[in-house]
């Protein structure tokens, strides 16, 4: 089983250098349980898990919202 926590995620546009916070992550559509993956969130990070005997509990159509600034503190 592999697990990861994703925290303080941002992207930046090349053209105007504007930051985009990854504070809203969504899962849409349906998923196939044979891929053995799961995920969720706390107020600080999104977590994902895959492999082994992982059972999916996330369903579809969920939005995970994180508490983080709209741009990184540099």
Tell me about this structure.
The protein has strands at 2-6, 10-12, 19-21, 24-27, 37-41, 46-50, 62-65. The protein is mainly β and 74 residues long. The protein has one domain (2-65). Strands 1-6-5 form a three-stranded antiparallel beta sheet, with no helix packed on it. Strands 2-3 form a two-stranded antiparallel ribbon. The chain has a two-stranded antiparallel sheet with strand order 4-7. Strand 5 and strand 6 form a beta hairpin. The protein is elongated and about 45 Å long. The model has no long low-confidence stretch (mean pLDDT 86).
Quick structural gist:
The chain is mostly beta strands and 74 residues long. The protein contains no helices and 7 strands. It has one domain.
The whole-number mean of residue pLDDT values reads 86
What is Rg? 14 Å
Order of helices and strands, N to C? EEEEEEE
Helix content: under 10%
- Characterize the largest beta sheet: strand count, sense, and whether it forms a barrel: 3 strands, antiparallel
The largest sheet has its strands arranged as 1-6-5
Q: Structural class, please?
A: mainly beta
Into how many domains do the coordinates divide?
Answer: 1
So what's the overall shape?
elongated
| Proportion of residues in extended strands | 35-45%
Low-pLDDT segments, ≥5 res? none
Distance between the termini: 34 Å
Q: In total, how many beta strands?
A: 7
Number of helices: 0
């Amino acid at each position: 089983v592999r697990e990861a926590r994703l925290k303080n995620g941002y992207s930046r546009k090349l053209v105007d250098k504007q930051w985009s916070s990854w504070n809203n992550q969504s899962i849409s559509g349906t998923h196939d349980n044979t891929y053995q993956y799961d995920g969720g969130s706390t107020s600080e990070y999104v977590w994902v898990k895959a492999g082994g005997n992982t059972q999916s509990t996330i369903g579809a159509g969920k939005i995970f919202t994180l508490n983080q600034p709209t741009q990184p503190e540099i």
